[in-house]
């Protein structure tokens, strides 16, 4: 009887833990769906007008005070150095912001929309098709990581305008390269801090995609195992 009671307690604890994990997955799925609908598939300009809320969509709402008094039309033109001067000290946060700024700018270019300083939307003919094509290419292969392109690392470098560094990485596999730190890159011969920053930002994004993909696969297997356990013998 005592053994049975212990078993019931442990099973209840496991069930609570599993249910909590499932709730977290549901919340994560909702966040990902919201992000896809309002940031990736199309830009929710109404949300963008409320910049603190827009930041909250990718969990950076706590940085909103740094952008107080600035229009989003100005903010999305910022680069890494601008953000650092503003007070965004975390490199990961700067990388996340820049990535989302690029997506907004790509949508603006696609829709051939120019936002004036007053925030009024004006239609105009988009002259720089080359820039539009690059933004589309970047989103397709770098925001949505193209692992096939990564296999050809010199071509991958070329896509972010760092082809001149290809020789430094000869003989190395991409999965080794993305584990490099700024110091590693500097020792390798990447002398430009801007180039190192760009590489590290992309490495971090690739690893994030890899880990999220691995976690999703693991959760799927866990769910399948649970279903099998619940099936009658």
UniProtKB/TrEMBL annotation:
Pfam families membership: SAM_2
One cellular component (GO) term of this entry: P-body
GO terms for biological process, alphabetical: nuclear-transcribed mRNA poly(A) tail shortening
Keywords, comma-separated and alphabetical: Cytoplasm, RNA-binding
MF term (GO), any: mRNA binding
InterPro entries linked: SAM, SAM/pointed_sf, SMAUG/VTS1_RNA-bind
Compartments where located: Cytoplasm
Record keyword RNA-binding present: yes
UniProt superkingdom: Eukaryota
SAM domain mapped to chain residues: 146-203
UniProt-listed PANTHER family: PROTEIN SMAUG (PTHR12515:SF5), STERILE ALPHA MOTIF DOMAIN CONTAINING PROTEIN 4-RELATED (PTHR12515)
Name this protein carries in UniProt: Sam domain family protein
